[in-house]
C-alpha cells in the first residue's frame, strides 16, 4: 500500500540516526533505559523531519485514543466559550484532541448524546449538564465501564467523580451584601430553574445575606425562569406589576441582569438611582453597556483548565480519588448599583 504523501514515520527517524526503531520509541516516551543524549538527538531529528505521532497506532498499543469530549449546554455565551478555551489549552498541550457535543440545554438531547457516544473512540468526558439533567445513571454507567467523567459548572449529585465549580453561594452572598451596603433594602432575585444546583446555591447565598442584615425575605420577589436576557426582562416586568416593588434586583447571571435593565429603561426607571441591578458572570458586555453592570466575575478560563487537568489525572491513575474544586468569584462594582 502506498504511504500517504509526506508522512514521516518512526522508522524514518530511526533510519536517519542509524539506530533501532525500539530505541526511538523509548526515547520519545522518555523511558529510563535511554540516555538523555540519545533522547535529545531523537527529539531534534523528529522535529527536523516534522514527525507526528500516530495516535491511532499508539492507542491500539496503550489502550488510549487521545480524544476527549466536552458535553455542554451551549457555546453562544462568554462563559462557556471561555471555559472551552481553558480546556483546549491543556488538552492541546498534552496532545489530546477535543470533540464537542452541544445539548442546547435539552435533557432529551443530553441523553441522546450520552447513549450514542462512541466510547471506544474516547478516553474521557468533560460535562456541564443541561438544566433539567436526569442522566445520573448514564454517567455512573460510563464511569463504571472505564471512561472517567469530570463535571464543570453544572453537575448531577451522587456521581462519584471530580467536579470543578465556581463558589455560587459566596458569590451571590457578596453581590447581595454589596446591594445592602449601597442602601437597597427591598432586594429581589431573578434566578434559574428550581431544580438546578447553581440556582439553589445562589438563592441560598442571597437569602443568607438578607437574613444576616435582617431584611425581609419576600417569596414574591424570587422568580424562577430560564437564563436568557428575554427571561430577565419578563421577570422584571412581573416584579414591577406588583403592589410592593423592589428597589434592587440581583440576577443569577449577566444576561438576565441586562434583561432587567432593558425592562427598567422601558419603564423609564433610573437604574442605580431608583432600582439597583447586579449580575453574575462578568461578561465583557457588562463593562460596555450604559450604565455599566455590577457583577460577580466567574473564573471561567480556570474552570476549563483545571477540569481538563483533573480528567487527565483520572486517565493517568486507575485509582485516582475524585476531587471537588470550588473557585472563588470576584465582585466588580459599577454604575448599576450607584445611588
Automatic annotation (TrEMBL):
Pfam families: LacI, Peripla_BP_3. Keywords: DNA-binding, Transcription, Transcription regulation. It comes from the Bacteria. GO terms for molecular function: DNA binding. Transmembrane segments: none annotated. CDD domains: HTH_LacI, PBP1_LacI_sugar_binding-like. Residues 8-62 form the HTH lacI-type domain. PANTHER family: HTH-TYPE TRANSCRIPTIONAL REGULATOR GALS, LACI-RELATED TRANSCRIPTIONAL REPRESSOR. This is LacI family DNA-binding transcriptional regulator. It comes from Compostibacter hankyongensis.
Amino acid at each position: 500500500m502506498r504511504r500517504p504523501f509526506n508522512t514521516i514515520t518512526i522508522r524514518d527517524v530511526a533510519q536517519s540516526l542509524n539506530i533501532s526503531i525500539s530505541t526511538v520509541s523509548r526515547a520519545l516516551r522518555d523511558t529510563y533505559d535511554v540516555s538523555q543524549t540519545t533522547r535529545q538527538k531523537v527529539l531534534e531529528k523528529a522535529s527536523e523531519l516534522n514527525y507526528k505521532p500516530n495516535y491511532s497506532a499508539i492507542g491500539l498499543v496503550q489502550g488510549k485514543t487521545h480524544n476527549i469530549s466536552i458535553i455542554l449546554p451551549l457555546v453562544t455565551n462568554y462563559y462557556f466559550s471561555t471555559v472551552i478555551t481553558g480546556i483546549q489549552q491543556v488538552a492541546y498541550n498534552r496532545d489530546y484532541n477535543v470533540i464537542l457535543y452541544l445539548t442546547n440545554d435539552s435533557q432529551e438531547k443530553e441523553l441522546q448524546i450520552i447513549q450514542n457516544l462512541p466510547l471506544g473512540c474516547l478516553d474521557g468526558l468533560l460535562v456541564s449538564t443541561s438544566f433539567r439533567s436526569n442522566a445520573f445513571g448514564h454517567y455512573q454507567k460510563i464511569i463504571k465501564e472505564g471512561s472517567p467523567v469530570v463535571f464543570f459548572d453544572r453537575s448531577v449529585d451522587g456521581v462519584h467523580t471530580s467536579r470543578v465549580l465556581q463558589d455560587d453561594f459566596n458569590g451571590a452572598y457578596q453581590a447581595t451584601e454589596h446591594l445592602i451596603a449601597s442602601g437597597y433594602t427591598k432586594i429581589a432575585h431573578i434566578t434559574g430553574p428550581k431544580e438546578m444546583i447553581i440556582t439553589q446555591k445562589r438563592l441560598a447565598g442571597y437569602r443568607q445575606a438578607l437574613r444576616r442584615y435582617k431584611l425581609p425575605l419576600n417569596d414574591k420577589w424570587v422568580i424562577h425562569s430560564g437564563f436568557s436576557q428575554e427571561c430577565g426582562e419578563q421577570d422584571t416586568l412581573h416584579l414591577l406589576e406588583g403592589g410592593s416593588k423592589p428597589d434592587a434586583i440581583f440576577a443569577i447571571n449577566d444576561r438576565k441582569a441586562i434583561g432587567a435593565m432593558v425592562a427598567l429603561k422601558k419603564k423609564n426607571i433610573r437604574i442605580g438611582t431608583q432600582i439597583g441591578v447586579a449580575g453574575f458572570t462578568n461578561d465583557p458586555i457588562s463593562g460596555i453597556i450604559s450604565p455599566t453592570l455590577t457583577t460577580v466575575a466567574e473564573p471561567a478560563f480556570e474552570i476549563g483548565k483545571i477540569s481538563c487537568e483533573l480528567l487527565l489525572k483520572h486517565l493517568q491513575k486507575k485509582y485516582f480519588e475524585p476531587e471537588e474544586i470550588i473557585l472563588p468569584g470576584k465582585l466588580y462594582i459599577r454604575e448599576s448599583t450607584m445611588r
